């Protein structure tokens, strides 16, 4: 009996050791991502959802801005660079591949007490260039417009300014480093205006229509809503050239479950 008991203990210890080894293997299969703060909600949702399909994978994201994420891929400190703008030709020439995984709308927001519901594209341009400085000039109350935007290097700022063709022309009162604080700043300042990703909109701010069109999945997909940009997961070389783990990540994103996640966080899947 004593020998049998010892054998049982040895067997249990072996099973525990094998389980530990398996877990150790899972923990070593990591994918590092860096980049856009606007993509944080989507990436975190994918990180959580992928565990059911590929439990051996562990995503390790950082959110330091689009340009920083692209640089991280180029210098080898990240596997994937998250960018909320198209890649520049110079970045592609360095070997980066532009993998568009979702389409996002850049939504113009004001404080909830603002009486204005809609701006034309030209009015929006003139506000950010400093030509329109008071809400009464666009049908609102006699209240100064406080222009808020993202910091230099932000993918959201780059996309916003490129879409409107106003690069290096904006007259910002405040430049904010992250998406969340933009919402907080607009919420707290009467007369403030800012731009954020569609998926972070909540009841604390008021989204404006542009040229009479509200941002939605339908208006983004059919092109009616003009302020839209890609969510890019850049890799060094094509997806087919990446290791098996990275290929599995993109396979999950393109799967039915992955597309559900993209829709659930307020983004529009890319139509193949």
Notable traits:
272 residues; alpha/beta; D-Maltodextrin-Binding Protein, domain 2; lipoprotein; Phosphate_ABC_transporter; elongated
Short description:
This protein has 272 residues and is α/β, with parallel strands linked by helices. 40% of the residues lie in helices and 23% in strands.
The average pLDDT value, as a whole number, equals 89
- CATH fold-level assignment of the largest domain: D-Maltodextrin-Binding Protein, domain 2
CATH superfamily of the largest domain: Periplasmic binding protein-like II
Rg: 23 Å
Secondary-structure element order, N to C: HEHEHEHEEEHEHEHEEEHEHHE
Largest sheet data: 11 strands, mixed
Q: For the terminal residues, how far apart are their CA atoms?
A: 66 Å
Count of all domains: 2
Roughly what fraction of the amino acids lie in strands? 15-25%
Poorly predicted runs of 5 or more residues: 6-26
- Mind telling me which CATH architecture of the largest domain this is? 3-Layer(aba) Sandwich
Number of strands: 13
Oligomer: single chain
Secondary-structure class: alpha/beta
Give helix % range.
25-40%
Count of helical regions = 10
Q: How would you describe the shape?
A: elongated
Pfam family, one: PBP_like_2
Family: Belongs to the PstS family.
Signal peptide: 1-24
Protein name: Phosphate-binding protein
């Amino acid at each position: 009996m004593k020998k049998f008991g010892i054998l049982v203990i040895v067997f249990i210890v072996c099973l525990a050791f094998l389980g530990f080894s398996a877990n150790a293997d899972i923990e070593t299969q990591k994918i590092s991502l860096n980049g856009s703060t606007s993509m944080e909600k989507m990436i975190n949702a994918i990180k959580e959802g992928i565990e059911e399909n590929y439990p051996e994978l562990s995503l390790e994201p950082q959110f330091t801005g689009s340009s920083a994420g692209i640089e991280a891929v180029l210098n080898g400190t990240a596997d994937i660079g998250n960018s909320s703008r198209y890649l520049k030709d110079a970045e592609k020439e360095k070997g980066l591949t532009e993998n568009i995984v979702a389409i996002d709308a850049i939504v113009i927001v004001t404080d909830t007490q603002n009486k204005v519901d809609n701006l034309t594209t030209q009015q929006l341009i003139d506000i950010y260039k400093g030509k329109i400085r008071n809400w009464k000039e666009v049908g609102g109350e006699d209240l100064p417009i406080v222009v808020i935007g993202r910091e230099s290097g932000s993918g959201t700022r780059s996309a916003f300014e490129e879409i409107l063709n106003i690069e290096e022309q904006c007259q910002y009162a405040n430049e904010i480093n992250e998406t969340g604080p933009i919402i907080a700043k607009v919420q707290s300042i009467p007369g403030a205006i800012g731009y954020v990703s569609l998926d972070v909109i909540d009841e604390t701010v008021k989204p404006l229509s542009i040229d009479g069109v509200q941002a939605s999945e339908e208006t983004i997909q059919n092109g009616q809503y003009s302020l839209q940009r890609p969510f890019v997961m850049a890799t060094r070389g094509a997806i087919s050239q990446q290791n098996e783990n990275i290929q599995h990540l993109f396979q999950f994103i393109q799967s039915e479950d992955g597309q559900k996640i993209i829709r659930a966080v307020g983004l529009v899947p890319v139509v193949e």
